[in-house]
Design goal:
By secondary structure, the protein is of the alpha/beta class. 41% of the residues lie in helices and 21% in strands. The protein folds into 2 domains: 139 residues, Rossmann fold (3-Layer(aba) Sandwich); 143 residues, 3-Layer(aba) Sandwich (Rossmann fold). This is UspA domain-containing protein.
């Protein structure tokens, strides 16, 4: 039971967050509350015209050996669809004004949640996919990470413990084209807010693993040289892409050895970030599957901050 015609909708790639159409995946469980709070916040912030809410039911196997039992399950499942549809409408009505707000559509699919949500996203042409992320479970964030990895569009992951507000936005910067897209998206989003958020661009650098006697410098001197070099590159980056944005700040921090992800996660926690905006590597089929170790680690660790992955 899908609300959209089975025909893919193409849309041009954009670095701005011009959201007319949301696709919201609901699990019909506890994690939905945080998702719907954020949906409500977005409808009060952005000129959203339409929202589709999608839920995926388990698929009944028509080739199951016990044909009679399977037919009973099939009939029961169709009745269950109507029940779930009513539950979806009731749940959403507490957060979105159906009469004065955006147009609402409801879609119930059967099968694998990952495949069905991706198919709904392709067919609908939605500008932004929202998906919740349960915390404290063994498979924490697996579906959300897979959706981010395979989706061709922007994806907003909303952890169960996140806040539906935008006061502080963190944008990790490595001076690459995808970090440019992330910064431009954060700036465009901030321009739509009546109360502007603080945007913190952060670059994390690591000192090379060399002994001071080999480079004839002390650790402190080597660190100073690298910091000055990074600061110059960072300032040039900000001057190029955010020169006239008064709410953009930059922070440069040094990490020890190992993955940047834990350092970035701790930084966002310490700054009480409400949103992290990350740029994905690219749009090709291979690049879509390679989020990068930093993004993967951050999505695994993060259970409190909403994360927008821009493609």
């Amino acid at each position: 039971m899908t609300a959209m015609k089975e025909q893919e909708v193409s849309r041009p790639a954009s670095s701005s967050l011009e959201v007319d159409y949301l696709l919201v995946a609901l699990e019909m469980g506890k994690a939905d509350e945080s998702v719907l709070h954020f949906v409500h916040f977005l409808t009060q912030t952005l000129p959203i015209k339409a929202i589709t809410f999608v839920h995926v039911l388990p698929k009944v196997d028509l080739f199951f050996n016990d044909f009679t039992q399977n037919m009973q399950n099939l009939i029961k499942n169709y009745g269950h669809q109507d029940e779930v549809l009513d539950q979806m409408r009731n749940k959403v009505s507490s957060f979105v004004d159906a009469e004065n707000g955006p147009r609402l559509h409801f879609s119930i699919r059967e099968g694998n949640p990952l495949e069905e949500v991706l198919q709904e996203a392709r067919l609908s042409g939605a500008d932004l996919l929202l998906v919740g992320q349960r915390s404290g479970t063994g498979n924490h964030g697996i579906l959300a990470r897979n959706l981010v990895r395979k989706s061709v569009g922007n994806t907003l992951i909303i952890p169960e413990q996140s806040r539906a507000q935008l006061k502080t936005i963190v944008v990790p910067v490595d001076f690459s084209p995808h970090s440019v897209r992330a910064l431009e998206t954060a700036i465009n989003l901030n321009r739509s807010l009546s109360e502007k958020a603080k945007i913190i661009c952060v670059n994390i650098f690591e000192l090379p693993a060399v002994f001071s006697y080999k480079v004839r410098h002390s650790y402190e001197a080597l660190k100073q040289v690298m910091e000055e070099d990074r600061k110059a590159a960072f300032q040039d980056f900000i001057n190029t892409y955010a020169k006239e944005e008064p709410n953009v700040e930059m922070e440069l921090i040094e990490q020890g050895y190992g993955n940047v992800g834990p350092y970035l996660h701790q930084f966002c926690e310490d700054r009480h970030a409400d949103l992290i905006v990350l740029g994905a590597k690219g749009h090709s089929k291979v690049e879509l599957l390679l989020l990068g170790s930093v993004t993967e680690k951050l999505l695994t660790l993060n259970q409190t901050i909403s994360t927008l992955v821009v493609k």
